[in-house]
Amino acid sequence: MPRIGALLSLSREHHTSLVMARDARRTANEQDAAALSIMLARMETHWHTLLAEHFEQEERLIQIAEDTLDPESVARILAEHGELQMLASGPCTLEPAERLRRFGDLLGAHVRYEERTFFPQLQSHPCVAAVAADADAQV
After folding, report:
1. Residues 122, 65: contact at Cβ < 8 Å?
2. 87/92 Cα distance (integer angstroms)
């Protein structure tokens, strides 16, 4: 299903996150301390430069359309946002390789779930299209 307005830009950003997820998983399997350190820094940068704002935008859309969204889908999205934030930028007790592996696995699954299941729910809400049109008019 083609995306509209705000969902179009969010959907485009998903490609960057899928690449990040793949790279995190690959690096986790290398067991090279220097590569792990570099990838952890890259993961944190990805959080600050893309994911934090991306998640805020999605959560604003959820607030607008929540009355028509599947509650289990909303709960899953919000829980995964919280875990991804913790893995990317919070204190984490996991070893670096396991942290990267979990981040990569979760981020990849999260993006695919949003594209296949959650964004179609959001896109069907009439106010999401209106928000997108308002945002486009302000640019």
Report:
1. yes
2. 6
Full domain range(s) for residue 130:
5-134
Which two tokens mark 53? 């704002």
Question: Is 139 among the domain residues?
Answer: no
| Alpha-carbon separation of residue 97 from 55, 100, 103 (angstroms) | 24, 5, 10
Task: Let me know if residue 54 belongs to a domain.
Answer: yes
Question: Which pLDDT score, from 0 to 100, does residue 23 have?
Answer: 98
Q: How far apart are CA 99 and CA 37, in angstroms?
A: 11
**Total tally of structural domains belonging to the chain:** 1
Q: How far apart are CA 54 and CA 136, in angstroms?
A: 17
pTM above 0.70, yes or no: yes
Q: How many CB atoms lie within 10 A of CB 82?
A: 12
Question: Taking the chain (139 residues) in consecutive chunks of 10 residues, what is each chunk's mean pLDDT?
Answer: 82 96 97 94 97 96 92 98 95 94 98 96 80 50
Question: Is 17 inside a domain boundary?
Answer: yes
